[in-house]
Structure formats: C-alpha cells, structure tokens
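Narrative summary of target 7.
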Amino acid sequence: MLVPLGAAIGFFIKLRHDKKMKEWELAQEEAKKPQFLSLTPARKAFKLGQLEYAGRSPDYEKAKALFEEALAEQKGLTLGHDTLETAAIYNALGMVADDMAKYDEAIDWFKNALVIYDENRPKESNADLVTINNNLALVYDRQARYADALWGYEKALTVFEKVLGKKHPSTAATYNNIAVVYKEQGRYGEALQWCQRALAIFEKVLGKKSPSTATTYNNIAMVYLALGRYEESLQLHEKALAVREKTLGTQHRDTADSYNNIGMVYLALGKREDALQWHQKALVIREKILPIEHSDTASSYNNIAMVYLAQGKCEKALQWHQKALAIREKVLPTEHPDTASSYNNIGMVYLALGKDKHEEALQWFKKALTIREKVLGAEHPDTASSYNNIGMVYDGEEALKWHEKALAIQERVLGTQHRETATTYNSIAAVYYAQGKRKDALQWYQKALAVFEKVLGTEHSDTATIYNNIAAVYLAQGKLDAAEDLLQKALPIFLNAFDENHPEVEDVKKGLALIAAARAGQ
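Modeled conformation, tokenized:
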C-alpha cells in the first residue's frame, strides 16, 4: 500500500520588502562616513546592530546585543522617556526576536513600539506605524494565529494602497503576505491570485533579480507543490534559487529555504536521494546561522525524516521526527500546525512499522487531528489527511467511514485529479480488498491509478504501488497473466527507487513467486 500522507514543511516566505537588505546597505554607507563617529552612542549601536542583522550572514545574537545597548543608551539619553527613536529600536528588537523564533518576545517588542507610534503620530496615514503592524502580523502568522495575521495585513494594505499606491513594493509585499495566510489555510486558488499580483509589481518595479521577486517565485512554487503541479514548482524554485544565490549568497537563510523547498519537490517526484541531498544542504546552513533550537531547523529534521520514511528506514525516520518535535514543542505555541505535523508524521512511522504498532500510530494521529481541526478547520487538506491516516489504522466499515470523510473534503477542496485524493482512493480500495470485495477494490484502484499516472507519471514508485495493488486483485481473481504484467512493470521501478530488501520490492517478488507456483500447479 501507499505510505499514508504526511506533512513536509516548506517555506512559504513572508516579506518585509527587502527591508533588511536596504537597512544593511544604508547602515553600511553611514558607517563609512566621518559623521558616524559623531553619532550618539545609541545611534552608533543601532547602526552597528543593523549591520550585524541584515547582512548576508546575519549574527542575530550580536545584533540583539547591539540593539539592547542602543535601547539602554537611548533611555538614558531621554531619561526613560519613550521617543520615536525608542520605537525604532523596539521594532528592530522585535524583528531579531522573530528571526530567532522567540515569537512571544517579538510580539511584546512590536506592541511596545506601536504604543509609542500611537501616541506620537497620526494613525491613519503613517507608514512606519503600519510597517510595525505588518511585522506584528508576520509573527501572528508564524504562530498560526491566522485571523489576527490576516486582519493585520488587510489593515496595512488599506494604508499602503492609499499612501504609497497600488504599485509600490511595500504594497506588493502585503499582497504576498496575504497570500501566505491563504496558502496556510488551504485556500490555494486565492493564495495564487495574491502572489501573482505581488509578482507583477516586483518584476516591474524591482526587476527579476530582486530578493523580493525571488521570494514570490518561491511562494508561487509552494502553491504549485500543494496543488500537485510538481514540474512547474521545481522550475520556479530553481528560478528563485538562482536569484538568491547571486544576491544573498549560499549561506543565507532564504537560500537555505530554497534548498529545503527543492528537496520537498524531489521527494514528491520520488527522487529520494536528490531530496535528501537538498535537505541536508539546507540543514547545514540553518544549524550554522540560526539559534540551536529554531523552528526552521526543526523543519529540516522533519523533512529529512520524511525522506528516510519514504526509503523504508523507519527507525532513522523516527529519530529525526523526535528531534523536530522536541524543538517545535519548545518554540511554537502548544497548538501549532507544525507540531501537529510532527505528531502526524510520527504516527506514520508507527503505522509503517506494522500492526503491532497501530495503537501507537492512532494515538499520534488523533493528537494531530485535534490541533488541525481546531487551528485549520474541518475543510483543510491537512485535516483531511489526518482523517485518511486514521482510517489506515482501522479495518472494515470504521476505516471506510474515515476515508470517506477525508475524500469528501479532498474532492471538494483539491479536486478529483489531485495526488492526495488519489491516495484516499487507494485507501478505500485497500479496505474493499481486505473485505474480499474484489470488484469494488479494482474500481477504486483504477481510479487512483488514473490520477497517479497523470500527475506522477508511469515511472514513479507511488504509481508502481498501484500496479502492485491491482496485480494483487488480479492474482486473487486468478488472472495470472494480467497480474504478472503489472508486477513486471512495478519491479524495475521499485528497484530503481529502493534497496533490494525494501518491503515494496519483496512484495512484488512474492507476487511473482505465487504466480509461478500457481502455474506449476495447473
């Protein structure tokens, strides 16, 4: 059978409209001027903090220390009175805390900055005030507080469109950020529309070689991945990566995100070794430039585990998933979709370990489902995946109930030609096959096969799994020639994808042996 659906974590990037790079360039220029030496200690520390934070290889700890020094100097200079310069330091500290995955701390800093701006400048037209609100929304988004994030982005958009115009990069960045929320809510069509609006502006105003443009390529690619449009996704990720490596370098966080996301596409395409190499490239950078316990690093651990599970290396997969979960439970809110993905994915490993581990699998799947239903809602594709995975644990009518629940959502939200929908077709077929309803099983397997051949092609290991499953039905019906044809079709695909002793390979060989024995007995 197909491995049940899990959740690899990709990076659908929120934008501050190249703000960090611009701040870094300005700070770098100012640091070269003679006037720099005459700056107040607060301003000098702030500029140096910007240099540490926004360069190609940011040092978050050093930047944080410099911003804190600037804050202490500023408060001493103004005798503790909060000024707009104090608010700028609060905002900078919030941005560093966000990048260090200290989300509650980031929210506190942004809120402190907003209080000062609220007291000192007009609320309806001030772009700085709106930018801080936008930064706050970014953190809400990371915490999966989607309603709060969307409200913040829409509020920012109203001001940016009014004050800066509909063709300004900051406006485009907000279009992008709204797309982020829609994608994470499973509203892929709306996400794509907002991304494309952002891209049109970025390409025209900033050019095709801008980091902001590259980020939008990345985000559109992530929507394509979710929609099962893998080749288009890969092309756009490679386009984004070319820009990032050239403008940001090979040791930048955004570049690492591209490596990670390309790894996800390769895994979806069944190219497991390629996927592993790209995820490992991402991990090397993340472990080098990010704090030890960071949600991005946890996502790399998760995604490497997904590759190991796809290779049939369950124990290795479990170890990496547990490493990811330990970080996520520490740095993310209690009920976060990424944490739910870890619960789900650990459940997948236990499911793959066999019947005697199914109770453990069920416990992990239910933990994941509780969060997904609460945070993402009952109509989200990830929630549907949880329903399908729970169905894999059960037998008979109870299994069908969960699979049908998943299928209703998937056909409605993703359509009938999506890989996840086809996976549920396969799950339903497996239940009918176990019940001895071979005709029903065959119909559902054939529905699954039509989608897999269309979406993944005839050489993908998941397609070969359906060949093997249909062959099992033919074998049970005594149709030896038809079964053998499909098994012979599946075997080289599996051997190309897996080790000789992988369960899929062994299953095909058993089927061929049964056919040989049946013929010998005729």
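The radius of gyration is 26 Å.
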